[in-house]
Predict the 3D structure of the following.
Amino acid sequence: MGGENQSSAEGFLIVGFSDLPQLQVLLFVALLLIYLITLSGNFLIMATIYCNSHLHTPMYFFLSNLSFIDICHTSNIFPQMLAHFFQDGSHMSITECLMQVYLFICTLGTEVLVLTVMAYDRYVAICNPLRYMTIMNKEVCVQLAVGIWAFSLMFALLYILFISELIFCGSHTINHFFCDFAALMKLSCSSTHRIEVLTYVLSVIITLVSFTLIITSYINIASCILKIKSSGGRQKAFLTCASHLTVVVIFYGSAASSYIRPTSTYSMKENKMVSLSYIALTPMCNPLIYSLKNTEVIKGLRKLLLL
């Protein structure tokens, strides 16, 4: 109990990138630019979809949800991470740390589920186009979005309840740029077995199942595309999926390399750079990837900027 009181009183010291003094200026400028591009890019995507009625379709509804998630995901971490560069580490109370972990897990889980639904949306659009607007009607889309957020909020809360029971009686220094739940488990002097079991179980239920559904959707999509006789039709169908597939590969690849492994093999220094790929680069690239070859988004964006 004494260790628990100590952790509550002292909180945690977030090292950030203070262990890389030679890269401080470069990292600060790069991360600030990434954050500004992420915010502006995702806000523009949301505004473009909102202001153009011809983009009020299921595909763009979930794309705007993805942009909102990316804004929340980065804003939960970036402001404090950037502040780390002006001080030798940053202190966080236990409450602030748990809140950051909660929002991080919630947005991470939400993005996994939204990417899964977007894959299903593309499957219906390509393989069952005549029934697309019937299957993916407005009511269904809203219910899916609400259900995803509700599930993720409860899912993250379960993690927080387990993490809040940990006792920290030794070092309170987190060698990361945010209050990462895996880093907290490394610092705990109490058993983390329940959290590790929860991580693997939920990884199978959510991540593996979601990834399997995405793969299944794309196998069916590929089968349907190959049946299209015209090369132009095949190319058009492929382009509607290429952006989503690119984001899925980047997101799952980087996230899996950080969290789907035992904590005994966890290297905090190595994981800092890996974490940046889905905390910083993926949210920044999403608007670019989805709009680069999407003529509808480009037209809508031009119309918005000319207003």
